[in-house]
Please model this.
Amino acid sequence: MQMPIVWVAGLVFLAGVAGAQSVVETSSGPMQITQVAGGLEEPWGIGFLPEGGFLITERDGMLKHFAAPGDAPVLVAGLPEVFAEGQGGLLDVMIPRDFATSREVWLSFAQPQGGGGAGTAIGRGTLSPDGARLEGFVTLFAAPPGARGGQHFGSRIVEAPDGTIFLTIGDRGTGPEGLDAQDPLRAEGKVIHLNHDGSPATLLPGALPGVYSLGHRNPQGAALDLEGGLWLVDHGAQGGDEVNRVREGANYGWPVISYGVNYNDAKIGEGQVKAGMEQPLTYWDPSIAPSGLVIHSGKAMPAWKGDVFVGSLKFDHIERIDPEAGFAKEVISTPETARVRDVVEAPDGAIWFLSVNNGAAYRLASP
Model:
């Protein structure tokens, strides 16, 4: 059957078809976008398996295993109970570098804590040989009880070069008046650093064990740069979305300093600068609602080596940021980039991303 063709801003789009392709012009030439999975309900994170398959989380608590692009998914059993309210639910998925021998899968999720509370948690299980079950799932870290509501859980998982694990946690929506993100004894608004067994990999004086950095609002994208350093992208309020390179023990300011204002247009905190608090590498005003971040290796697309790619939930695009050009930004916008939740690099160097509005995963690469 001949499929409908829609012309949009210099691209050709085969509408709503698994395996459909479009071509979008970018500063590095034409890039082909191919749908690799569809029928998703609020997809949140992607993880690649070494045999060629991939896993996708859905916020309502589903983990789907795709043996190959375009294949029907297998629902993975054995997952933890999740708090699937507001922004909470099953969040990120991370496949560690030793998966071929360990078969471990790491998940972050909003964990119910009783009395209407919930906190960001992380754990791991072993994927069965048929890819249909996580066996022996164990929660390794959970934010201490206390947070209420359904906002700002974070959260992304990043495996450090030494095999330790970073987990980003949001401030849980406490707002500019709440200082949990500044309290070193709270998990809210922090990057947590763990060993493989869940024990703290960072011990800062006077801080909750595992706290690596503080002063974050809602970091929903994180990745390693080409030197192994940790970067994250953080939601601001009205304005003030940030890209930060994260250092151990550093304070990134929220809610004491911010380049945004509150939703009632009131000033946040003490201004934009304060001694002892880090400045972002770049920021957005107005906010783009950033989610998902990857720093490209240059594999398959050498012109983009070291460039930062961030998804926008608000403006339906992917943004490319060039650190070597003063953090200049390029917008990649197509019908496929509708409410982008995650952006990752596949083993072959292609960029994959999740569209919440389309309920689909896409691959972007040179034709």
Remarks:
- The longest strand covers residues 104-114.
- The mean pLDDT is 93.
- The chain has one helix and 27 strands.
